[in-house]
Specification:
single chain, alpha+beta, Elongation Factor Tu (Ef-tu), domain 3, 3 helices, 16 strands, disordered N terminus
Length: 371
Amino acid sequence: MPPDVTPPGQTEIVPAAPKTVATPAPPPPVATPEPLSAPAPSPRPTVETSRLHRLLTVGGTILGLFILYEVVTSFVAFTDDAYVRSDLVAVAPQVTGQIIEVHVVDNQDVRIGDKLFTIDPEPFQLVVNQWKAQIDRAAAQLKVAQEELALAQAALQVSTSSHTYAVQEQSRFSDLAKREFAPVSELDRANDELRRSRAEMTISTVAIAKAETDIGAHQAALELAKAQLASAQWNLDRTVVHAPNNGAITNLTIRKGDMATTGMPNVGIVDSDAWRIMANYKQYYIRDFKIGDTAWVWLDSSPWHFHKGRITGVARGFSRNPGVDKLLPYVAPTTDWIRLQRRIPVTIVLEDLPPGFKLYMGADARTVIFP
């Protein structure tokens, strides 16, 4: 029989639970009053100390950067406000006429004396021929006047000789007539010869004066014609326009058939012998710049290489007002430490450029100078 089954007729005896003895609870702790102490310090001094520390740190950093800037700028002068410059020669014709030939193309390199374009020479040749004819005419008239002068001078010599003889004859017959050794008619004839010879002398003198005046007038006309011929020839020679300098043609727009006007530029040449770098330095930097100092130039048209140069000039004046670039250059000021810093142009000439190295007028550059 399983032990947990009670037989019928028997009472199940349940064992009594063990008796538990209650343990008295410990008495509650007696609250001991805390001793009196000073109140907790306020956090404000800590915050003020932290703020002062930050201010000192920032101020010290700014002061240190300023001192570092002053030290660096005393030994290194840098500017990125620089550019390549040359002289743009504006070629204008000296005579007016139609262009019949253009001898160059855009961006072509030219040398001094190369032909640029030709103006129709025919009108100028006609003027030259006209003044050549005027010279021939004035020369012929001058020769005639000179011959007339020679004739008048010869006539004066003859009339002078006749007058001398007539004076002698009149004196002789006057003396004979007073003594009645000669008829009065002979005296009258001698007086008539004397008057005639005197008149011939006057005519010859006037002829000489007239011939001399004609010679002067024709001589002046001849000189004028020669001067006009020279002017006409000068104009004719200027119908072919030549390059006045070495360089490169830029922005060529003229074409065959265009009208060239005196004094109006129509060909631009960038001078290849006048390359320089214009570096606009803040006025703070230039105090130690000297002519001949070495400069290093970075060209944006040829990057990753520094080119050696030398200072050839520091501008002694600049315009403070924007406007047309006249005698004083204007350089826009830059904002630096709030105050607008003025910039002064410094001219730098590159040295030891490799053969065939090309510069471009207006290209950006950067320069470093160690004063």
